[in-house]
Amino acid sequence: MHGSSDQQDNTPNQPQDLGIAEKRLILIAALLQGLALYALKFFAAVEHWSPVWQFLCYTLVITLPPLIIVTVAPRLARGYWWIIAAYAALLALLASYRGYQCTPADMIDCNWPFAFCVAVVVATFIVAFLLRAGATGTAQLRWPGYSAQFHYSWDMALTVGLTLIFTGIFWLILFLWQSLFKLVGVGFFRELFEEDWFFYPVTWLVTGCGAILFRSQQSFVLTLKRLLRTMLVALLPLLGVLTVVFLATLPFTGLQPIWDTGHGSALLLWLLALLLFFTNGVIQDEFPFARYPKWVNRLLLLALVLAPIYAGFALYGLFLRVHQYGWTPERLWGFVVALTLALLAVSYSVAILRRGGHWADWLPRLNSGLALWVLAVCLITQSPLANFWRISADSHAARLQDGRVALADFDFFFLRQKLGRPGLEALQSLQALPAIQQDKDIAEHLQQLLAPEIDGNLRENPLQIHARAQRVREIPVLPTGASPPPQHADLGAAGRACEQEGRACLWLVQDLDGDGKPEYLLFEHRDSSTDQRHWLRITAHTAADDGWAVFADSSRTTTESFDRLKERLARGNFALRPSRWQSLYLEDELLFDPTQ
Question: Are 397 and 446 in contact (CB under 8 A)?
Answer without folding.
Answer: no
